[in-house]
Specification:
With 499 residues, the chain is α/β, with parallel strands linked by helices. Helices cover 40% and strands 21% of the residues.
Length: 499
């Protein structure tokens, strides 16, 4: 059974904050303490190098890492020196530690977290790395790959009302607090909300907390920005597979994400944005876009969905059977593995996609835009600025005709380069590639007319005038050039290669 979550005591939390600041318990300082070898090993969930470094460092920072990240017992005197203002007794009253013989052990994970401009501390349940045991079904996840992916991809305009749907320990809400006037957080788990409340107090945040499933607790409310790392994992409904509150929504297949796409528009203000992660099933040899298109149809929302990864059913089963701390050599793992394979086979699932879903409620009465694309390679980090720019570009394209598009003098973005490839001795290239350094990292192959158009995109010549000149130069009909370059022009503008 999991230890009780931390409690919010304003005075004791203030003392804890002072001790964490005094010990320089920051992402940067911990990285410097551990060094690249131990840090990289910890990222692979191998603790020994970090234990070796921290065991001999003899500093309050090393004690905090051993206690709250590695899950090691520390000497009571070392714990007292690391927490001089709060004290071990105060940490016990906050339910952060418990005394075990002559030592002190943590009852939760507490570690620094940061983005490019802010630093925080995040408390959550102890990880499998610290407990050396499988997770409990009510486990409150800390800072994981999905949460950092969502944080990186979230656009961050200044907004009035923001919602963190399924907040967990509150990671997304910490980010939202930096650019939203008010933040509401929801979760079906009272345990998760207790952790979120503790993290809000520790980081000086003021959030509204509402308990309930998905959008139910905010019925009738609208927000300018909604972010969610929902329980999107596709898990068999069988006693052989445990259901974890942080990842399993209790619905069959990918229906939870589908329902969220279809219903979230009721909670978006005009111009409001929703950003969340999701899985979707691919049945047989169907295109994943057909499935996601069916979710968006009739929603009245702009949709930009980027598929980032694809797994076959076996890969997916292996990933999530291990996720709860069950290792492949155990009979429990084999049983769960088989249950996943049976579940996917029952629906004819051949692949599972993972990606980022961005939705927007249009203003005015225009038709919503729909962009379903793949980007499986490296992207900008953070990706949020590119998402915000991409939404603005796609909105502009949805609101303007081809003629208006051609009236603009476009220029290549600063991160765009051109590559030309040809056979040795050839005077002309056989392949011309336009490469984007940031954003989605697009690589676009150009035809003759497209290459000619891009070559004059320096912000001085309207695209329509360039089309006329290119047609004359190539000795072809102007209409033919328009047919070739208009789809390219729209794609390059949408993805930020032309601005």
């Amino acid at each position: 059974m999991s230890a009780p979550p931390p409690v919010v005591d304003t005075d004791l939390v203030a003392r804890l904050r002072a001790d964490l600041e005094h010990a320089a318990y920051t992402v940067e300082a911990v990285g410097e303490l551990l060094g690249p070898l131990a840090s990289a090993a910890l990222g692979r969930e191998q603790v020994l190098p970090a234990q070796r470094v921290t065991a001999t460092a003899g500093t309050p920072l090393a004690t905090l890492v051993r206690l709250f990240t590695l899950g090691d017992a520390v000497d009571a005197d070392d714990a007292a020196r690391a927490l001089p203002t709060l004290g071990v007794e105060g940490a016990e009253r906050l339910r952060l530690v418990t005394q075990q013989g002559p030592g002190v052990v943590a009852t939760c994970d507490l570690r620094p977290y940061a983005d490019e401009d802010h630093s925080w501390w995040v408390a959550s349940d102890l990880s499998e790395l610290a407990t050396r045991a499988p997770l409990s079904e009510d486990h409150v996840l800390g800072i994981g790959g999905a949460s950092t992916t969502l944080a990186s991809w979230t656009p961050r305009p200044r907004v009035g009302r923001a919602l963190d749907l399924g907040t967990g320990c509150g990671v997304q809400a910490l980010h939202l607090g930096a650019h939203a006037a008010s933040v509401t957080v929801t979760d079906i788990s009272a345990r998760a909300l207790a952790y979120a409340a503790f993290n809000a107090e520790l980081n000086g945040c003021d959030w509204a907390f509402v308990e309930g499933s998905m959008l139910d607790p905010v019925a009738g409310q609208r927000f300018d920005l909604i972010v969610s790392n929902p329980p999107f994992v596709i898990t068999p409904r069988t006693p052989d597979v445990p259901l974890f509150e942080y990842r399993d929504g209790g619905q069959a297949g990918d229906s939870l994400v589908a329902d969220l796409v279809r219903s979230i528009g009721d909670h978006l203000a005009p111009g409001g944005i929703a950003q969340f992660l999701g899985n979707w099933e691919v049945v047989g040899d169907a295109d994943w876009r057909d499935r996601v298109r069916g979710w968006v149809a009739g929603s009245g929302l702009d949709a930009w969905v980027v598929q980032r990864e694809v797994q076959d059913p076996a890969q997916y089963a292996e990933t999530w059977a291990r996720d709860g701390g069950h290792h492949s050599a155990t009979s429990e793992f084999a049983t769960m593995y088989a249950a996943w394979l049976d579940d996917f086979a029952s629906r004819g699932v051949s692949a599972i996609g993972f990606g980022v879903i961005t939705l927007q409620r249009p203003t005015g009465d225009r038709e919503p835009f729909l962009d379903l694309t793949e980007a499986t390679g490296p992207v900008a980090s953070p990706m949020g600025p590119a998402v915000l720019a991409g939404l603005a570009a796609r909105t502009w394209l949805a609101e303007h005709s081809d003629e208006e598009l051609l009236e603009v003098a476009w220029r290549c973005a600063d991160d765009v380069t051109e590559e030309r490839h040809g056979r040795p001795g050839d005077t002309d290239p056989t392949v011309i590639l336009l490469r984007q350094g940031g954003g989605l990292g697009r690589v676009v192959r150009l035809g003759t007319a497209g290459a000619a158009l891009v070559s004059v995109c320096d912000g001085s010549l309207p695209a329509g005038a360039a089309v006329v000149a290119i047609a004359s130069l190539l000795g072809v009909d102007e209409a033919q050039v328009r047919v070739e370059v208009l789809p390219l022009l729209r794609a390059l503008v949408a993805d930020g290669l032309l601005v």
